């Protein structure tokens, strides 16, 4: 089942959230921007070699398309860790790979180009989370830790949560060495018997953390897209040897 509906060339809205009119939730594509190759074209990543004026214009276009402004946005320079920020105001922060907030009108988000973006909405307490999960964050349980932080900060319960596991590298493309593969449970990895290479399913690994917290599977949407297999639609750091742009996945409750 397709869990993402296309609204414009600039972004996709997770279908799991479309029944909540007060919620803004979207992930960007690589289309509709002004950046030249190799960042073509909607590069939203600040920490790239792209001209900052291009990134600023791309961000303006993206936020306009989702009915918001860049001045409403809180994000962080991500470090592939498990630190979580309770965001109370817009701005650019440092060292966090997940953000949570219950402030109306404040959007939070993460940048990705193969790693997994996870968006969570607590419809009872009107609280949200945006998570960046690479393999290190996944192993560190960043989804689990974020949900625990929401529980402590807002009183979040699993039954009232809706979640989206966004577009990222697919299992067939995410080849890892044995030192990485051994950190994942057997059900989350496979080995090519001919080559001996290991592959990790990051979508499934992070979905498992959502269900382990108690979120009902019917309240979890998973992107059917891959940054590698659908590289014409999304940026992939691995497929493009690091010379590429970044997408944003954002979420917030309207004023």
Automatic annotation (TrEMBL):
Pfam families named among the record's database cross-references: Cu-oxidase_4
The gene coding this protein: pgeF
Name of the featured protein: Purine nucleoside phosphorylase
Alphabetical list of SUPFAM superfamilies matching this protein: CNF1/YfiH-like putative cysteine hydrolases
NCBIfam families: peptidoglycan editing factor PgeF
CDD domains membership: YfiH
GO MF, one annotated term: hydrolase activity
Keywords (A to Z) from UniProt: Hydrolase, Metal-binding, Transferase, Zinc
Catalytic activity annotation: adenosine + phosphate = alpha-D-ribose 1-phosphate + adenine; adenosine + H2O + H(+) = inosine + NH4(+); inosine + phosphate = alpha-D-ribose 1-phosphate + hypoxanthine; S-methyl-5'-thioadenosine + phosphate = 5-(methylsulfanyl)-alpha-D-ribose 1-phosphate + adenine
Organism: Spirosoma telluris
Family in the record: Belongs to the purine nucleoside phosphorylase YfiH/LACC1 family.
Superkingdom as given in the UniProt entry: Bacteria
């Amino acid at each position: 089942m397709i869990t993402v509906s296309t609204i414009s060339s600039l972004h996709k809205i997770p279908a799991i959230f479309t029944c909540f009119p007060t919620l803004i939730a979207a992930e960007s594509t690589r289309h509709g921007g002004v950046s030249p190759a190799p960042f073509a074209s909607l590069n939203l990543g600040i920490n790239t070699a792209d001209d900052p004026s291009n990134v600023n214009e791309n961000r303006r276009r993206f936020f306009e398309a989702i009915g918001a402004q860049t001045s409403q946005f809180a994000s962080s320079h991500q470090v592939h860790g498990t630190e979580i920020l309770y965001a109370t105001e817009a701005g650019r922060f440092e060292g966090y790979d997940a953000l949570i907030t219950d402030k109306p009108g404040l959007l939070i988000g993460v940048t990705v180009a193969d790693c997994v973006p996870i968006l969570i909405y607590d419809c009872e307490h009107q609280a949200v989370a945006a998570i960046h999960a690479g393999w290190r964050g996944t192993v560190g349980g960043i989804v689990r830790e974020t949900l625990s932080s929401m529980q402590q900060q807002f009183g979040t319960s699993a039954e009232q949560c809706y979640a989206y596991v966004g577009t990222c590298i697919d299992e067939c493309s995410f080849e890892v060495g044995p030192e990485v593969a051994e950190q994942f449970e057997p059900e989350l990895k496979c080995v090519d018997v001919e080559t001996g290479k290991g592959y990790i399913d990051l979508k499934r690994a992070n979905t498992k953390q959502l269900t382990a917290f108690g979120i009902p599977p019917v309240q979890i949407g998973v992107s059917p897209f891959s940054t590698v297999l659908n590289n014409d639609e999304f940026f992939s750091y691995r497929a493009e040897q690091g010379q590429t742009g970044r997408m944003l996945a954002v979420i917030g409750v309207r004023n």
